[in-house]
Amino acid sequence: MILIEAIAFLVILALILRRDLSALARLPYRGGWKLSVGVMGLFAAQAVLVIYTPRQTVFQLAFLILSQFALLLLLLLNHHLPGAKLFALGIILNTIVITANGGWMPVTPEIYHFVNPSQKVEVYTKPVKSKNIILPRSETKLWLLSDIIPVLLPWDRSALSLGDLFLILGAAQFIFRINIKKEEEGMATPKGVSP
């Protein structure tokens, strides 16, 4: 959820700074809109499956890995776009730690209590409607890649992983670098000559 909030904040910031977001529509995407919609649909279905599945199944883990690879394929096809490499790195890091820990993003009891101070913390459980599994730090595989960064927002509390930070940085680079490229192209074009 915090990733969606961060992207929304970046878009609002870009609009406040009077960035031309119409430049995003003129980008040379590879793979076509059908592949993009298909991958996003697969990714959304996987997210729903992770959040609403009470226990790990082989099908759910296979679906998770398939959706992550499909998203990586789309990013690799569009590696020329600003932020694509950072976004891909974030997906890879999150997929590695989730796969290593049975299909869910691990979170320590301390971080879970920070995010949900009113809820009872039960170690080795997957909270309802969550992508997380609560594990002690000592039993978390690749702990450094799990949700270890507490984030306090005026309206919410959350936790981020290192992969999430790369996803946010990739989105920021995508949104703001597109405008810089357009401005650089505009400066390179002599006055009176349309690009």
Fold and architecture overview:
The protein is mostly helical and 195 residues long. The protein has one domain (2-16, 56-187). Helices cover 55% and strands 7% of the residues. The chain has six helices and four strands. It has helices at 2-16, 32-52, 58-77, 84-100, 109-115, 162-188, and strands at residues 105-107, 132-134, 149-152, 157-160. It has a two-stranded parallel sheet. It has a two-stranded antiparallel sheet with strand order 3-4. Helix 5 links the parallel strand 1 and strand 2. Helix 3 packs antiparallel against helix 4 (84-100) and helix 4 (84-100) runs antiparallel to helix 6. The radius of gyration is 19 Å and the shape is globular. The termini are far apart.
Keywords:
disordered C terminus; 195 residues; mainly alpha; 6 helices; two-stranded antiparallel ribbon
Separation, N- and C-terminal Cα atoms: 40 Å
State the domain count: 1
Would you list the SSEs in sequence order as H and E? Answer: HHHHEHEEEH
- The low-confidence runs, each spanning 5 or more residues with pLDDT under 50, are 189-195
Q: What is the strand tally?
A: 4
- Principal-axis shape equals globular
Give a brief rundown of this model.
This protein has helices at 2-16, 32-52, 58-77, 84-100, 109-115, 162-188, and strands at 105-107, 132-134, 149-152, 157-160.
